[in-house]
Amino acid sequence: MEAFEQVVASLLERDGFWVRSSVKVDLTKEEKRKIGRHSSPRWELDLVAYKGRTNELWLVECKSYLDSGGVAMSAFDGSNETFAGRFKLFNEPKLFRTVSLRLCTQLVGSGACAAKPKVKLVLAAGRIANDSHRRQLHALFAKRRWILWDEADLERRIVGLSGESYDNAVASVVSKLLLRKRKHGTDRADV
Questions:
Q1: I need a surface site. Which of 11, 55, 99, 136 has the fewest CB within 10 A?
Q2: Measured between alpha carbons, how far apart are the two ends of the chain, in Å?
Q3: Residue 99 has what pLDDT?
Q4: Per-residue pLDDT tens over the stretch 168-184
């Protein structure tokens, strides 16, 4: 699991989800034909998160883009086909329905989740191109009932971890390392 995915997984776990990474979805030959990918291997999801209390199943795409231009609206509005290809589940409704239905069948069949979970598509983005794109993306995600965790959401969640008791999860360790000075006004080693 990549570092960014580890941080997102830690944050999801703090919110009461169990999380699996690199989840393979075993599409049937018929399902592959239906989505126009006859010879594709098993579909792989970055993170799958399940909250039993609410029977929510989140399919989480993690895009850090920390050293790039960030996620832009052009990945979702049809104006950049190449960029849109990195967000297939968001841009291909038939693909999303097929993958999510098969995943639910797999998880319910194995006893990993209850029947008829509420499936949500989620993007965790470490960087959004700019404020204009951020506003447009939040509006689009709200309209389509998707969930967007942008830099501000991630930062708020990480800051929240810094006040909790020690946990060896990546996000918790990072929050304590980075926010110790802000919280205490000094570096503990200097005290």
A1: 55
A2: 37
A3: 97
A4: 666 666 665 666 666 55
One-letter amino acid at 12 equals L
Instruction: Map tokens 């960014």 to a residue.
Output: 4
Residue 161 pLDDT greater than 50, yes or no = yes
Structure-block tokens of residue 31: 């399902």
Domain that holds residue 37: 3-190
How many angstroms separate the CA atoms of 80 and 51, rounded?
A: 34
Taking each helix axis as running N to C, give the angle between helix 151-162 and helix 3-14, from 0 to 180 degrees, rounded to the nearest 10.
60
Q: What's the number of domains the chain is made of?
A: 1
Contacts for 51 with CB less than 8 Å, ≥ 6 apart = 15, 16, 17, 18, 58
Strand, helix or coil for residue 51: strand
Check: CB of residue 124 under 8 Å from CB of residue 62: yes
